[in-house]
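Pasting two entries for a bug report.
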Amino acid sequence: MPVLTDDEDLAIQAKLNFILGARTYDTYLQGFRCAELSGGVVITYARSEYMAGVISAKYSTQIAVAVESIVRQPTAMVLILPCRKQPR
C-alpha cells in the first residue's frame, strides 16, 4: 500500500482543521494520522478505539474530501483504526 508522506499527512490535517474548525478538530482529531491510500481506501489512525468510532461516524466524509483534495486521487472509503505506534 502506498504510504502517505508526512507532508501529505500534515496538509490533510490542516485542511481538516480548516473544514471542521479549530474547536472540533482539537476535540476529536487530536492525534489523528492519515497513513495509507490504496485503491480508494484511506487508512487512518485515531488516538483511541472510542475516538476512532466517533470520527468514523461523524467525519468520514470530510476526511475523504480532504484526502482527495491533497492527494488528487479518488477516495471511496475511509477506514479509521485505533492508534498504533508508528514512526513518523
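Entry 2 (this is the one that rendered wrong in the viewer):
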Amino acid sequence: MISIKRPTRPTRTARRLAAALAVPVLLLTAACGSDSGNSGNSADAEETQESESNAPWPLATVTGAVGEEPAIEVPDGAETSSETVVTVLEEGDGPTVAENDYLRVSLLARGLKEDEEDLVNTWSPRTAEDQQTEGSEGSEGSGETAGQEDAEPVYAALQMGKEDLLPLAVTDPLVGKPEGSRVVIQGAASELIGAVAENVGFQPGDSVVFVYDIVTVIDPLSMAEGEQAAAGPGMPEVQAGEPEAASITVPEGEEPPAEIQQQVLIEGDGAEVKANQQLIVQYTGVKWSDGEKFDSSWDHGGASKFPIGAGGVIAGWDETLVGKHVGDRVLLVIPPEKAYGVTEEGAEPAHELADQTLVFVVDILDAI
C-alpha cells in the first residue's frame, strides 16, 4: 500500500484553489464548449488545425492609463502576427520583476473575436450573485459581494516561474519588467493557454490578449521590518533578524497552553488582512514538545502564498491572521485542535503533527 504523507506546511489540501489568483478566473473554470464538428484524428485534420493555429491574426490596440481599465480594440486593417507579441505600453520605475518574485497585478484577458467576453477582469470582478448563477467554484478569492459598487480594487496574486492557474506562457514575459509597468501579451490562444483554449470555446487560429498592470513586486526573500518586541510572559522567545528560518525557543518545563496564544512582535503599517485574500508570508514552525523545527518557508526558497480565512490552512491561522496587517510579524501558539487535530483513542494519527501544539512565527509580506 502506498502511504501518502500530508504536507507539513499549514495547508489542509494540496489541490489548487480557484481563489489562488484572488479573482474569479473564467479561464480555467468556464466550459463554453466548442463546435468542433468532425473530431476525427486524420492527418489532414491535424494539418489543417496546425495551419489555422499558425495563421496570422490581427493585433489589438490597447489604450488607457495605468491603473485604469484598459480599452481593447481591433481596428480595421490592424497589423497581423503569427507569433506571440509582448509590448510594454508604459514602463514603470519600480523594482524589476525577477524569477520567483510575487506580483500584485491588475489583469484583463480577452479573446479578440467581436463581442468576446472577458476571461479575467480584475477591474470588473463578478459579484457573488454572478458566481452562484454560473455555478463556478473557487470564487472565494474575489472578496466581492453583490451590490458592492464602492468595493476596493481587486488584484491577482502571481508568482513568477510557477504555473499557478495561469500558464507560464502568459506570466513568464513579465520577468524583467519594472513595477508600475503596463504589459500587453498577445498570441494564439492555443499557444498562450494551451489545451484549455478549446475547453473555453477557442477555435484554431483564435487569438487572445492579456493586459497586466504590475502594481507591486514582492521579493520572496523579504521579511517584516521594524523593532521587534520582546516575547510576552509564557511565550516562546524569537530571533529572526536574518533571511533564514527564525530561531524559536520554547519555555523550558512549561505545559503548552490550552488556547491559542498570539502576539504581534513587529507592527506593520500595511493594509488589514481580510478573509478570502491570498496571504504572502515567511513562516517558521516548531513543536512545543521539543522545540524542533518542522517546517519553514525558508526551506522552500522563500515566501509562500496561502488563502486565508477560507479553510485552506489550519484553523489557527485562519482565526489569528485575519485582522492582522501587512508588515506584521506574528508569534502564534496553536493547540492541536486548531492545528492538525487530536488523535482519537486507538486510532492512528491522521497527520504526523497530530496531537502537537505548534509554534509559528509569521511575517505578513502582502495580502492580495
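Dev reply: Rendering is fixed now. As a check, the viewer should reflect this: Residues 1-9, 11-40, 127-148 have pLDDT under 50 and may be disordered.
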